[in-house]
Design a protein that fits this description.
By secondary structure, this protein is of the alpha+beta class. The chain folds into three domains: 128 residues, PH-domain like; 119 residues, PH-domain like; 91 residues, PH-domain like (Roll). It is 14% helix and 32% strand. The protein has eight helices and 22 strands. It has a six-stranded antiparallel beta sheet with strand order 8-7-6-5-10-9, with helices on one face. The protein is elongated and about 115 Å long. It is found in: Cytoplasm, Cytoskeleton, Cilium axoneme. It holds the Pfam family DM10_dom. Keywords: Cell projection, Cytoplasm, Cytoskeleton, Repeat. This is DM10 domain-containing protein. It comes from Caenorhabditis latens.
Length: 446
């Protein structure tokens, strides 16, 4: 094996004459001449485009001037336009203004359309289509859409969608003017009607007093309840025992901590699902968090307990919003002596049913009656047209409308409720709903 000496390796070093003629790096790295904008590649410096040779357009019928098809720097050059489309609808919820970015690629006469992302919208955004030749509407002499067809203040048809061009960038404006086109002044993008209405809603359409300060449901409701205990060791006297009740809204479980004097802090009932008192032939069910509120009797394993107040401010604000003013802190002892009423509604009916009419109804709906169903458990409203006979259901008008912003007390004859843009006057309640509403107005319940 032969080894090269140090003196032999010096022969590979270039001489001073070679360095002066070619430099230290015969093939220096070229600096970046392109930039990225909105996911597309553009020429970084407009002066570089002027240094390349120009060639006539491939479209023989177009006499707008030379086009940079063979220029190396123009391989990724593109004309950029701002445009919008208008979707017609009956109201501002359907009538929309959508903003787009149109890029025309000069090297192959293709077009890319992107839709910028917008917050709080119900449809997808992003790329509509990428680098495609778009067929022209009138294909005689010019089969595809050309850059000469794009100008500020004009409409362009791309795959049966009309885009209104409102503005362009500086490179696009200078390119079109150099090739003999007169570029119009920029136009303002119109605002979306839904966004305008939403921005002006608090001033033009204030919320109802019952919905002005809506409070979300807390994870736990805290009440105070009392019970007359006649099964104690005090020789038959009925001892009033007070408890703090914790109702967990996530799983509808209940826990009781005693607050009676000399028994403070003792656990009376651990967190458990409390069975609801039902008839023998009725399937078993547990209490739900909406079953319990001040002024209601509950059955705790055959112990009738009266809920008389909210134990914290968070629970009090939420219950006032949902059911009105229900504070029984100054209840009389006679309520405990009388006990729960014999025909008590431990829980509101699953469905509250009303007969109603539309306020300021349009001509096509004038004179019609409707049937309104309020699902107490799911907090949903369904409205259907009334059939030929009274209290019969016809065609569906509204289905599964969220009514969580309404309290149960708002569903009563004589009240006017608004769902979307329609307002309904509750005229009459069915017999079962009427019995429940009358029971809520009894002195024992109050």
């Amino acid at each position: 094996m032969s080894y090269r000496s140090y003196e032999d390796s010096t022969q590979d070093v270039p001489t001073e004459d070679i360095l002066e003629q070619f430099g230290s790096d015969p093939a220096p790295r070229r600096r970046h001449q392109l930039k990225y904008k909105n996911g597309e590649c553009f020429v970084a410096e407009e002066d570089l485009v002027q240094s390349y040779p120009k060639q006539r357009s491939f479209h023989h019928s177009c006499n707008a001037g030379p086009l940079l098809h063979e220029a190396e720097a123009a391989n990724s050059a593109a004309l950029s336009f701002d445009a919008y489309t208008e979707e017609d609808g009956l109201d501002e919820e359907v009538h929309r203004i959508r903003i787009f970015k149109i890029n025309y690629h000069l090297n192959d006469d293709t077009i890319t359309v992107n839709e910028p992302f917008v917050d709080n919208t119900g449809y997808l955004h992003g790329r509509i289509f990428r680098r495609q030749k778009v067929p022209a509407t009138n294909r005689i002499g010019k089969p595809y859409v050309h850059w000469s067809d794009l100008n500020v203040g004009s409409d362009v048809n791309l795959f049966q969608t009309i885009y209104r061009i409102t503005s362009c960038d500086g490179f696009t404006r200078s390119f079109l003017e150099e090739h003999g086109m007169k570029v119009n002044e920029d136009e303002e993008l119109p605002e979306d009607p839904w966004l305008v209405r939403r921005r002006g809603a608090p001033r033009t359409a204030p919320k109802l007093p019952d919905q002005r300060e809506f409070i979300n449901r807390p994870p736990m409701l805290v009440y105070r309840c009392c019970w007359l205990d006649h099964m104690n060791d005090f020789h038959g006297c009925r001892m009033k025992r007070i408890f703090k009740m914790y109702v967990y809204c996530t799983d509808h479980t209940i826990a009781l901590i005693e607050e009676t004097k000399e028994f403070e802090g003792q656990l009376f009932l651990k967190r458990i699902g409390l069975p609801f008192p039902v008839q023998p032939d009725v399937p078993r069910r547990d209490y739900r968090w909406w079953d319990i509120r001040p002024g209601v009797w509950i059955d705790v394993f055959c112990r009738p307990m009266f809920v008389f107040e909210c134990a914290n401010d968070e629970t009090k604000s939420f219950i006032r919003q949902q059911f009105g003013e229900t504070d029984f802190g100054n209840y009389s002892s006679q309520i405990l002596e009388n006990g729960p009423p014999p025909t008590q509604y431990y829980n509101s009916p699953a469905i509250l049913k009303f007969r109603c009419t539309m306020v300021d109804a349009p001509s096509i709906l004038y004179g019609l009656h409707f049937i309104l169903y309020y699902n107490v458990n799911r907090r949903l409203v369904n409205i259907a047209e009334e059939g030929r006979k009274t209290w019969t259901e016809g065609r569906v008008f509204l289905k599964d409308v969220d009514a969580s912003t309404f309290s149960e007390n708002q569903f009563a004859p004589g009240r006017i409720l608004q769902f979307f843009k329609w307002r309904f006057n509750l005229v009459q309640s069915c017999s079962e709903t009427d019995k429940y509403l009358r029971w809520k107005q009894t002195p024992n319940h109050k």
